[in-house]
């Protein structure tokens, strides 16, 4: 099994889309540095007039926020875009590639003509996709933080208030040590690797039915964005299915990035949803591949 | 232990109403180079897919080295390397990595030594670190043969190995396949549309038509079926009458060649060129040419398969 996983990882890492990923990441960093610089400058310009009418703790906090706009804050801020938008797209591409492209170019047939276990092949492919996602998630999280620190430095204290519910003033705010914030940040990144793995499993499942990576990746993306719309736009009409939506698993790492106190019951629920998706999206390819004729 | 590497017993495989294989049975002796020929749609690829566990038969049984492929695919195919359809590789990986991944050869010393030895044997040793994207079709075929021999294959299945190659490439691959049997003792199953190639390479042959085995056996035996002798002699009209009278029912057909009326085309039940010559000479005919008709396999193939399916145009020799 270890040899199979190693071979799958070698195959995945040989693809040219890694260069696209790195270029995309570099471009995102460039834009985010520009944006974050503007945000910090705007906060520095804020006068006492602007905070009038705000809750007391915000009147104290906001004028000092510019000082807290450091490299770690930059990485937490960037993380939302990186892990909510960019990484899911890359994850769909990797997961969609794994079976579909090999069906298309005929290498799967060469491999299966040896009578090797098809179940083991599916498991090895799925685990290798997860390992690649895990590697990129942690590497991008670390790189983002290093770039942030290089451009904006690192404060000793970190603000726990990052984003509140849309249109509402956050009800909790606080300061924690940079060390604790860094631990929370990387925990969030680790969590998001699992979340991305379950999200991309949709493309993985589709890839066994089709012969084109683009179809499998697009299918996963459509499922993800429909789920996103249902959860955030039409939530009131989709209460019954809301707990099972794939985007629901992203809630967990949002908590970690905001470095609030972790709601463990929510994390457990998110992992339960992930398990459902993992089970369905790995079992289906196992069954289909074992039945399929080439 | 059985003397046969592969046995196929009454295999039936249908796709909807179309029967791709209709009770096909064949046996491949150990150490032979076995060719399967047949018109398009005869069931060659389906048979290879079933043998390599890529497809499942509706009924019948396939065993490799005595082990049922359907019940124990991994065990049965442990010593089998197959390239079904065109050779497919990961283009961005080196030849070496392709061999490791697709053969699942592991990383032991013994495997690595055999891999390098086979690469040397098939003539790709200098290309092992190159990406497959850079390979020509001929090189890919060599790589495919190397792959089929790894990690420890004693039975190799090659589907149309000379397809798309230039004449030099065809000669190289033909020599390589012949040597596999002669030098490595490997049993080779090869399919091709190029009947001339099959005739030159194979020691045994099966002709597949409409999902059934129309003929099978050693190549020489198959080629001896209804041999045709071409004779150029003085007064062919009289010679024709003489031969008909002398040989009677042993001659299946006797006519003058359409494009060259001075030549007699004699189809007999069995090989009897020497007797024909003797009869003519004894009766005062001067025989200036006596030879077996070329493209014997093509003729037999068309007799067994092509006449009704109009496959004649597709056959290359």
Number of separate strands of chain B:
14
Largest interface: A-B, 22 and 36 residues
Query: How many domains of chain A, as an integer?
Result: 1
Shape of chain B: elongated
Gross CATH architecture of the largest domain in chain B: 3-Layer(aba) Sandwich
The major sheet of chain A is characterized as: 2 strands, antiparallel
Strand order of the largest sheet of chain B: 6-7-8-3-9-10
Ends distance of chain B:
38 Å
- Spell the H/E element sequence of chain A: HHHHHHHEEHHHH
Average pLDDT rating of chain A: 81
Protein described:
The complex is a heterodimer of chains A (294) and B (317). Chain A is mostly helical and 294 residues long. Chain A has helices at 2-13, 17-45, 48-51, 56-68, 71-105, 107-112, 118-152, 178-207, 213-232, 251-257, 264-291; strands at residues 157-159, 175-177. A two-stranded antiparallel sheet of chain A has the order 1-2. The two termini of chain A are 23 Å apart. Chain B has 317 residues and is an alpha/beta fold. Chain B has two domains: 4-223, 3-Layer(aba) Sandwich (Rossmann fold); 228-297, Alpha-Beta Plaits. Chain B contains eleven helices and 14 strands. Chain B has a six-stranded mixed β-sheet, sandwiched between helices. In chain B, strands 2-1-4-5 form a four-stranded antiparallel β-sheet. In chain B, a hairpin with a 2-residue loop joins strand 1 (4-15) and strand 2. Mean pLDDT of chain B is 82; it is low at 308-317. Chain A binds chain B through residues 3-4, 7, 10-11, 14-16, 105-107, 109-117, 293-294, and chain B through 49, 52-56, 69, 73-78, 80-90, 92-93, 97, 100-104, 106-107, 147, 157.
Topology of this structure?
The complex is a heterodimer of chains A (294) and B (317).
Chain A (H helix, E strand, L loop, with lengths): L1 H12 L3 H29 L2 H4 L4 H13 L2 H35 L1 H6 L5 H35 L4 E3 L15 E3 H30 L5 H20 L18 H7 L6 H28 L3
Helix pairs in contact in A: 1-7, 2-4, 2-5, 2-7, 5-7, 5-8, 5-9, 7-8, 7-11, 8-9, 8-10, 8-11
Chain B lengths: L3 E12 L2 E12 L3 E5 L6 H8 L7 E6 L2 E2 L4 H4 L3 E4 L11 H9 L5 H14 L14 H13 L5 E5 L7 H18 L2 E5 L3 H7 L2 E6 L2 E7 H5 L4 E6 L2 H12 L3 E6 L6 E6 L4 H10 L4 E6 L3 H14 L8
Parallel strand pairs in B: 3-8, 3-9, 6-7, 7-8
Antiparallel strand pairs in B: 1-2, 1-4, 4-5, 9-10, 11-13, 11-14, 12-13
């Amino acid at each position: 099994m270890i040899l199979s996983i190693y071979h799958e990882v070698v195959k995945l890492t040989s693809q040219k889309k890694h260069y696209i990923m790195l270029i995309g990441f570099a471009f995102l960093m460039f834009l985010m540095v520009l944006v974050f610089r503007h945000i910090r400058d705007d906060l520095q310009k804020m006068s006492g007039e602007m905070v009038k009418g705000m809750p007391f703790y915000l009147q104290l906090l906001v004028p000092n926020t510019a000082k807290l706009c450091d490299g770690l804050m930059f990485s937490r801020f960037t993380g939302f875009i990186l892990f909510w938008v960019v990484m899911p797209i890359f994850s769909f591409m990797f997961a969609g590639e794994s079976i579909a492209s090999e069906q298309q170019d005929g290498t799967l047939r060469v491999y299966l003509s040896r009578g090797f276990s098809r179940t083991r092949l599916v498991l090895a492919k799925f685990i290798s996709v997860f390992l690649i996602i895990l590697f990129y998630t942690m590497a991008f999280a670390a790189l983002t933080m290093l770039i942030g620190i290089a451009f904006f430095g690192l404060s000793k204290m970190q603000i726990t208030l990052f984003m509140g519910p849309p249109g509402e003033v956050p009800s909790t705010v606080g300061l924690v040590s940079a060390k604790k914030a860094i631990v929370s940040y990387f925990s969030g990144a680790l969590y998001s690797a699992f979340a991305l793995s379950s999200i991309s499993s949709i493309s993985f499942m589709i890839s066994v039915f089709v012969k084109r990576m683009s179809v499998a990746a697009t299918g996963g993306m459509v499922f993800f964005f429909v789920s996103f719309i249902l959860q955030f736009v039409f939530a009131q009409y989709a209460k019954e299915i809301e707990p099972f939506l794939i985007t629901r698993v992203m809630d967990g790492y949002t908590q970690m990035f905001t470095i609030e106190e972790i709601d463990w019951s929510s994390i457990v629920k998110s992992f339960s949803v992930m398990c459902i998706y993992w089970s369905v999206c790995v079992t289906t390819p196992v069954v289909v591949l074992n039945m399929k004729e080439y | 232990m059985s003397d046969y590497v592969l046995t196929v017993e009454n295999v039936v495989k249908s796709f909807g109403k179309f029967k791709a294989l209709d009770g096909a049975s064949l046996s491949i002796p150990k150490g032979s180079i076995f060719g399967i020929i047949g018109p398009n749609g005869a069931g060659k690829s389906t048979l290879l897919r079933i043998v390599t566990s890529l497809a499942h038969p509706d009924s019948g049984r396939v065993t490799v080295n005595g082990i049922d492929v359907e019940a124990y695919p991994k065990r049965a195919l442990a010593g089998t390397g197959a390239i079904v359809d065109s050779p497919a590789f990961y283009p961005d990986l080196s030849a070496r990595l392709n061999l490791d991944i697709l053969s699942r050869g592991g990383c032991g010393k013994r495997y690595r030594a055999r891999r390098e030895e086979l690469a040397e044997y098939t003539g790709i040793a200098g290309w092992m670190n190159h990406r497959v994207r850079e390979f020509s079709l001929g090189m890919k075929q060599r790589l495919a043969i190397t792959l089929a021999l790894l990690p420890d294959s004693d039975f190799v299945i090659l589907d149309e190995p000379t397809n798309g190659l230039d004449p030099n490439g065809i000669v190289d691959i033909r020599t390589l396949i012949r040597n596999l049997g002669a030098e490595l003792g490997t049993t080779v199953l090869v399919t091709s549309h190029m009947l001339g190639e099959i005739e030159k390479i194979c020691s045994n042959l099966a002709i597949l038509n409409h999902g059934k085995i129309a003929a099978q056996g050693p190549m020489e035996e198959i080629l001896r079926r209804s041999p045709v002798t071409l004779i150029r002699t003085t007064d062919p009209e009289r010679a024709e009458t003489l031969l008909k009278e002398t040989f009677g029912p042993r001659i299946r057909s006797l006519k003058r060649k359409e494009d060259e009326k001075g030549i007699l085309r004699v189809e007999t039940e069995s090989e009897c060129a020497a007797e024909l010559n003797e009869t003519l000479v004894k009766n005062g005919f001067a025989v200036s040419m006596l030879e077996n008709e070329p493209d014997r396999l093509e003729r037999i193939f068309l007799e067994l398969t092509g006449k009704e399916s109009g496959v004649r145009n597709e056959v290359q020799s």
